[in-house]
Amino acid sequence: MLKATRSNTKIYLIGSKKSEILGSKLPCNRQVLSTFFYYHRTLRKTIRDSSRAVIKEVKTFWSKARIPIREEQHAIAKLEKLHGSWNLLKKSSKRKSATQRLKEQNFIDTLEDLFDIAHADALTLIKIEEDRNFLIAQREKKRRGCIMGRDKVLHLKECKAEKRKKEYQLRCEREEQRKYTNSSSEFVSDVLRTSTDLGSDSSYNSDNNFSISSNYNKQMPEKEKVQKRKKVRGTGSTSLITPHLAATLDRANISDRKATFIVTATLQSLGQNVANIPLSRSSLRRARQNARAKLSTNIKNNLQAQGPFIVHWDGKLLHPTIKNVTDSSSNDEDFAKDQDFKWSYPLQNEQKKQKPEEKSSQMRVPLTNIAKIADMTAIQDEIQGVLEFAEKQLEVIQPREDYREILELLIIFLGGTPPRGVRFRSPGALHHARWMAKILYSLKLWMFRGQFKLTLQEEKALKDICIFIIRIYLKNWFGAPLPIQAPRNDLKLLKQLKEYEEKNLTVSQIALEKWKRHLWYLSDHLVALAFFDMGISPEEKERMVIALHENQGEAEPSKRANIINLQKPINGMTIANFVTTNTVFFFRNLGIDMEFLQMKPEKWAMQKSYQDGLEIVKNLRVVNDNAERGVALIEAYSSTITKNEEQKQCLLQVVQEHRQRYPDCNKKTIVKPFDF
After folding, report:
1. Cα–Cα–Cα angle for 334, 338, 343, rounded to 5 degrees
2. Could you give the CA distance from residue 409 to residue 283 in angstroms, rounded to a whole number?
3. Which residues pair with 15 in a beta bridge?
4. What is the pLDDT of residues 248-300, one digit of tens each?
5. What would the 3-class secondary structure string for 645-659 be?
6. For 581, which DSSP code?
7. Cα 447 from Cα 440, distance rounded (Å)
8. N or C, which terminus of the chain has less Cβ within 10 Å?
9. How far apart are CA 264 and CA 31, in angstroms?
């Protein structure tokens, strides 16, 4: 028994896991990997989080040795590369060939070597010869030398230098405060009052202005006058750019230069004399930055955190900005020439070349005949159910306009009439990442196929995809936002695609192969959502509880389910087949008490632990639309208003909050008070 336990905890080629790095030398590869596996396997952290935690410990040793190190992201990449090398060897660990044994021995020989994260120019940057020699010795085999106690003499020098630096900063702050205090507040108020009086006096002329300015100039030293003018300018700009105005300019994606033009023209249209109002691009920029930072802080402070948060990591390849495509910028010019742009032209664009009367005669299709154009024989027995589903979905507020459009098209396609009447919108952008756009395009293409020529093969393929959309895809699409039902719906779709082989083998095989790579909610962790699904029978939930204790999960579970490992036919699969011992981590990560699992499923709804868990799960977002909106947000604001990363984060928060509070530009919406 003890031997089995040791074999389970021992890491291939590495040995046992270590919760921390100990010793008086700089960490070696074995120490780093041992601690990495503790974070990764014992604490169940991701590879990136485990690497970051280990590098944080490693940096402590290098800091004590006073050796400059490389950037953290490069150190993390080095550790992940080392782990990747180990992983490649582990995959071939069952082989007994001489080549495999040689590779293993070479890897073992490097485990006691220094995990070197020193700066590339460390030997040049190090000023103390003893520290330089220590680094050279640590890079040798067996890492000669060790880190001793603190150098008291050097530490005393550093403390004195830090003290002098703080005293200097304090003197600078006191000097700035003294200058500000000595500023004549009376002079500032006189200037503002004089500017106001002169701006409203119709008999004012340039000679009077000169004499007044001269009087003030005689009263004050030149240096003090410059300070007063700067004070007036700063005060006016700050009060002019209110938080509401700053957030609105950010929402509209207005740059600082454009904002200067807009604000100036707006003040002039309101009858203000802008000559007396300090306006400049730099002052507006500073005022917007300050307002943006304060709004971001308020948003964070007002955030009410209830339960755990889910962070969705997503990526987007942003389009490169082509600057100055001239003969001198050959790289940009080549990039511009080599682009292969593929355009998709809507139907009506082709008709613009024709005469109006020809266009009218060709596009005149009686709307009452559109339903007859579509061949309904293949789906005759399902029409009524699909129509009722679409009409019911239209009663719900849809998150996007194309969701509603596809429901209306579906009703028209099946011979019904949507609540808003029969209407057709021009086709929009067609992108591989937006399957919804392909659905819209396919339905319209089929209903208007009489307006242009299609080959028999194209018409058959178009018909097949439309029938697949109606029979299989749409109901599952609109059921995707339901988090609790996600595992059941995914398994149901898997079975539907398998059964669809009897109707269309080609479409079924292609869709099934694609869907097997998207079984996220049948993974070891997320399948736990099914415990809160009222659509699953108590008997099935009992089998799920048994599987939770008996089905042994993998040490490194996949992020999505692999049905090949189940070795069962798809039609015979149940939710319990996907539940493993790893499923408990879902409850632990979300802080859900598992006490209700000890009861019969019929009594779960009466248990407080189940009710609390149900409330947490109901608030989860399981669709990709939120992430897509976030990607679209950073695309729109990545390089327009600011390039400062801290300001960019504040900008995204302010814009997102402004969009939520002011979703449209109707008057009843925009007159709402600005209170965030």
Report:
1. 140
2. 52
3. 11
4. 999 999 999 999 999 999 988 988 888 878 788 998 999 999 999 999 999 98
5. HHHHHHHHHHHHHHH
6. G
7. 11
8. N
9. 63
